[in-house]
Amino acid sequence: MAYINPDLLQEDWDALGTWDDGDAGGGVSDISPAGQLYLDCRAVDPTGRAYRSKDFGTIGTGDYYIELRFSGDVWDNTADISESGIQLNVQAETKQLLTYIGNDLDGSTDGIWVMDSGGTKTKVLTKTWDTSFHVITFFVHNSQTDVDIWIDTDPATEAADVTDADCSHATATDGFTAISGRGSAAGNGEYHIDYLYVGTRMIYTMAVTVGEIALTGIANILTSARTLICSGGEIATLDSYSESNHSAFFYLYNGGNNYIGQSFTNVNATILDSCKFYLNKNGTITGSAYAKLYSEKHNTAYGVDSVPDQLLATSDAFDVSGLTADLQLITFNFSEANKIILNALTYYVIVLNYSVSVWNNRLQCSVDITTPTHSGNRISSSNGIDWTATSDDDAPFYVYGIAPTFLLTGIDNILTRGYGIIADVGSFTLTGIDAIITSARTMAVAVGEFTLTGIATTLTSARSIVAGVGQFILTGFNVVFKGFWQYKTKNTTSWTNKTKNATTYTQKSKNDTSWTYKTKE
């Protein structure tokens, strides 16, 4: 989860886009795997680099944040700090942050260095970097001369690892930023950048797992709040295919298929909670299995050739050694950042992944190959990249979610640019001195009444006003129908009043005998 609001630069490395290629001396920068910038320094000369840069606009003279998530597969070094590890440069209007991250950069120690006003690279933190992903958050402040630094901690709640480090090196171009990997051919340096964000403020998170979200006080302001969720709701089945449909096994083992899954439909917006597959084992198996949720894509149609697209969430590990030869419904829980929001009326693919034991000691997943009736289709893969869709098989499964509740209470409750306000069950009420719906094209009530009250109640361009049961009444001093051409009673006897240049009124009985009344001369 990101800590800052990337309102200046949000780079998730889905593509290189407008980033300029500054690779030199054998260094290579590219997207690999998807969603990560890969800095390959395995074949660089002593001054080579894998390098990308861009000018993203203007930061200005104020305070700002930088957030970088990265890993080093192999941390490389040379005697020169500027030619080692990962180098990040972000320039604002008056000063620039130029920082160096690596191991053994000065020939003896590991950590983070920052360039000061005189161009000296000063070590500000000692830390030995492993091969895991890490998040560094920088807060540049005090007229852009000082920087606070957090390593793998939340700046909103935790103390900084570094405070007021000198970062007052003079700037060159406001908005210019560069990220690069350095090293030597002998060192085989390799680095991955997961994301790079620059913004003017942090993201403030307010979460309640059970109960209500309450904002109280004279002034309560949420700025740039992208999602507000109260997650304490009923756990419901989003989609399923019963284990009673079992007719065969699908084998998961190292050297064969490692993935099996099923495409499904999520009807209502909800929070992903857990899933189940119907499993047993053959022989003795070890290691962990995982459930993974993907977005869905297809060439022909959903349920015909649906396959996974983007990985969205991964479950907690399940230790398979506890399985028996008897089939069981096994639960896979999604936690923390993997409890994602699922969109309404959207297709997804739920997948089981296991790749540890060999064929004669394997994990077995139930499938229905006789009379499959689920709307989706089964999928499989040996590598998680190349997928096979099987429309005449289904895999028993269950996917569960938590229906979110959101409540706004108090004197003033304002939703701006609220395009959809929905009450699925019961009533939806707007109350107060001023309750206004502007540009409300459609107002509907499936059961009961719909009431508009007040001194002035206006329906503009209301094409149809219908009462399906009972009466529909318009009352008041002035009830006007404009351009009203026809009114029919239930027995279809009708009167027609033509307003266009009419000088007579005609009434015809059922036998077509007619009388004509002329208006006064």
**SS element count, helices:** 0
Helix/strand class: mainly beta
Mean pLDDT: 80
What Rg, in angstroms, do the CA atoms define? 33 Å
The major beta sheet can be summarized as: 8 strands, antiparallel
What is the highest CATH level, the class of the largest domain?
A: Mainly Beta
- The overall strand count is 36
Shape: elongated
Beta-strand percentage?
35-45%
Distance between the termini: 83 Å
Describe the structure.
With 521 residues, the chain is mainly β. It folds into 2 domains: 199 residues, Jelly Rolls, CATH 2.60.120; 168 residues, Jelly Rolls (Sandwich), CATH 2.60.120. It has no helices and 36 strands. Strands 2, 4, 5, 7, 12, 13, 14 and 17 form an 8-stranded antiparallel β-sheet that branches. Strands 3, 6, 8, 9, 10, 11, 15 and 16 form an 8-stranded antiparallel β-sheet that branches. Strands 19, 20, 22, 26, 27, 29 and 32 form a 7-stranded antiparallel β-sheet that branches. The protein starts with a strand and ends with a strand. About 14% of the residues have low confidence.
